[in-house]
């Protein structure tokens, strides 16, 4: 048994997550984790809500609540959505825990001690109307490199280059359209140039990465600059340095602390388990691989920033240094980044109203239908488009007609003719029987190989090809016509049931909810496909601070079944089945498109009204300032 670390990108707690988000980080990570558990490996899958940074403050101010209140609300919303989606976290937590603060400060102090963090000055964007620091992402303008409009103050999505907001041409605030002013303030910087050689040397050893990910990652080192890791903000983790620790307006910035969450969540998991050092098996053992799942807009933070922070902590950059008390930290084995998913040809955007929230789609459609569509048509290696027509087609033609109908037909024939799993009569077996079982058993290697190499679409296509061949076997053997040979009928239905059971194992990482139903339909008892659960807990270091976590029980032989053909139990009772997958009415496509258009119009109207009010307030404030200036000149 090997240890496998599955680190899942941290959803930002300024609103509910949409399908585009979970297509990148959610379902792919869960499929992989479930597969590795079925292989018998000891998986630790962690994440949580990312809750610091100026965007949280901006949204909280808009809603008239505190930043903590806003984070608390969306932490609960996001945790429930991801749990309902069946994501099998060992721990899904948050970045406002006392544990996370301690771990982040420990990394900061050791990196500072090793010389990879230093003090300097930087120009920051200030809102003229509020005097507050503007987040880099909330400033847009023309990219100074490729000259594309709409580049953000932290990165240009068109050319992929990192930016500082003062580099933008004609920068404006996305909040109210005003032009920010830039002021020089003191900050701490992560010395990325001093870590670049070691970081790039590590990248050059990586094998099996998606081509776009490794090429983009190496391209980040063509020109490397130090990055400020603090901000003039009152919401975040205190900077653990004398003269800074008690300063309410200087905090470690969100992008520095969020990636450390993988480590802090692992430590929290171990503490909650009652074995505070258990996390080290996944972080200090160089033989333990760590896989990081995310959308492609997060590659920078996982192939440059987080590895640089770990190298700095380990003392492995050009300045040398010592490893801190957490021990040498393993760099990622692989950064598994998906491309973008659009919606009906438009880029997902909550602020622009182009969105399908997880909670909304799960309230109207089966969860495994959503997981299946994300897996078969998601943005694994190229951008993909979510369309309601394709969502309905995949569900109806593949899940309901092919897989669901197969399970229902086999279970119904067994229930009608025997009422239990019939015995296999070796003497009545044909070459066709043996060929089918050889195929389904062999599919564990082929499907598993696809999943191990993060080609989940290929894995699902291969599993569904097997389903198709089982259907062909049933159609060819026509067991409903076997009237006078009970042994042959029993053999055909036993072979069919075994093949369906094998296919169910193959599909279980993708379809955990329905996999349990298929297992039970064929007489299986107990848990076949474990699901996560929400638990309300108290913070380990901040008494009175309560929040939900996602966790679960994933134990081989108890709640997890092996990645291999398991013999079905002869004599297990099989009752007349109920359909596991239902077809979605074709009318749903037009209903969803109409619902989307209506919601989009409402969101755009509300946003236009909000922006107009902000501009009016800005103009009114400017008018009053001019009036005061005139009054003073008259005096």
Automatic annotation (TrEMBL):
Subcellular location(s) of the protein: Cytoplasm
Ranges of residues in domain Methionyl/Valyl/Leucyl/Isoleucyl-tRNA synthetase anticodon-binding: 433-532
Binding positions for Zn(2+) per the UniProt entry: 143, 146, 156, 159
Compositional bias of kind Basic and acidic residues: 623-635
Cofactor note: Binds 1 zinc ion per subunit.
Presence of the UniProt keyword rRNA-binding in the record: no
GO BP, one annotated term: methionyl-tRNA aminoacylation
Top-level taxon: Bacteria
Location of the motif 'KMSKS' region: 347-351
CDD domains tied to this protein: Anticodon_Ia_Met, MetRS_core
Main location: cytoplasm
Needed co-factor(s): Zn(2+)
Catalytic activity, EC: 6.1.1.10
One GO CC term, this protein: cytosol
GO molecular function, one term: ATP binding
Keywords: Aminoacyl-tRNA synthetase, ATP-binding, Cytoplasm, Ligase, Metal-binding, Nucleotide-binding, Protein biosynthesis, Zinc
Motif placement: 'HIGH' region: 11-21
EC class of the enzyme, as a word: ligase
Domain Methionyl/Leucyl tRNA synthetase per the UniProt entry, residue ranges: 4-410
UniProt family annotation: Belongs to the class-I aminoacyl-tRNA synthetase family. MetG type 1 subfamily.
NCBIfam families given in the database record: metG
Biological role stated in the UniProt entry: Is required not only for elongation of protein synthesis but also for the initiation of all mRNA translation through initiator tRNA(fMet) aminoacylation.
Protein name: Methionine--tRNA ligase
Organism listed in the record: Bifidobacterium callitrichos
Source taxonomy: Bacteria, Bacillati, Actinomycetota, Actinomycetes, Bifidobacteriales
